[in-house]
Amino acid sequence: MLIASLLILIGFASLIFGANWLVDGASFLAKKNKVSDLVIGLTIVAFGTSAPELVINSVASFDGLPDIVFGNIIGSNNFNLFVILGIAGLIYPITVQSSTAWKEIPISLLSAVLVLLLANNFFSQQHLEISRTDGILLLIGFILFIYYVFTQLKHEKGEEVSYNAQPNYKIWGLIILGMAGLIIGGKLVVDNSIAIATNLGISQKIIGLTIIAAGTSLPELVTSIVAALKKKSDIAIGNVIGSNIFNLLLILSISSFVDPIQYNPDFNQELFILIGGTIFLIIAMFTGKRKKLDRWEALILLSFYLIYTTYLVAKEI
C-alpha cells in the first residue's frame, strides 16, 4: 500500500512535469513559426493543463474502467469549480471584466447539461453509455466553442512578447520528454489507484472523484492561485471555466473514441452538483453591479465541497 501511494505521487509529479515540458516545447515551436501568443494561450496552454485528465482517461478507457473515466472528469470539474475558485476567491475576490468570460460560464453549464442528457440516453433508448456517436456530438460542441473563442480573439489585441530562439533539439526534446512524462505518469496513477481501492474496498468511483480528480487538477490549482495572488481575476476564472469545458467536450469525447464508456447513474448526483455549482457561480457573477465572486461566496463553494467529499468517503468506509 505504501509503495502504491508513493508510485501515485511519482505519477502525479510525472504528469505535472510532463505537461509543463510539453507546453514549453510546443510554445517554443509555435513562436519559432510565428504563431500568436493568443493562439498559443488558447490551444497549447489550455491543452497542457488538461493533459493529465486526457492521459489518465485514455488509459482508463482502454483498460475498461468507466468509473475512473467519469469520476476523473466530473470530479476534476467539481474540484475546479468548488475548491480552486473557492481558494482563489478567498485570496482575492474574483471580478469578471471580460465579456468573453461571462459567456464561457453559461457555455460550461450547457456542456454539463449536454453530458447529463447524453449519458442518461435522453435522446435514445440504448443502454447508459457515452457512445462514439455521443463523442462526435461532444467533439462538435468543442469545435464550435473553439470557433467562438477565435472569433472573440479577433477583436482583442495581443501583446508583443520578446522571444529568445531555442535550438531544435531543445524544442523536440521538451515535447518528447513531456509526452513520455504524461504517458508514464498516467499509467502509474491509474494502476496504483486501482490497487489501493481494491485493498481498502473503496469503489473506483470514489477514487476517481477524489484522489485522481484532485491530482489531475493540480496544474489548474497552481495557475489560479498564482493569478489570484497577482489579482488577475480573468485568468483565475477563465482557467477554471476553460478547463471544465475542455474536460466535458474534448476529453470525454476522445475517451469515448478509445472505447464507448458505460455510465453509472450514481454519477447523476455529482453532475447535478456540478450544474448547481455553475448556476450558483452565474448568480454570484451576474447579480449586483460589480460582477464579483466575494470571499463569503467563495467560502460557501469551498465549504460545500469539503463537507460533501467527507460525506462521500465516510459513506464508503
UniProtKB/TrEMBL annotation:
It is found in: Membrane. The chain crosses the membrane at residues 6-23, 35-56, 68-93, 105-123, 135-150, 171-190, 236-258, 270-286, 298-314. The keyword Iron-sulfur does not apply. Keywords: Membrane, Transmembrane, Transmembrane helix. Residues 6-150, 171-312 form the Sodium/calcium exchanger membrane region domain. InterPro entries: K/Na/Ca-exchanger, NaCa_Exmemb, NCX_ion-bd_dom_sf. GO terms for molecular function: calcium channel activity; calcium, potassium:sodium antiporter activity. It is a multi-pass membrane protein. GO terms for biological process: intracellular calcium ion homeostasis. GO terms for cellular component: plasma membrane. NCBIfam families: calcium/sodium antiporter. This is Calcium/sodium antiporter. It comes from Zunongwangia pacifica.
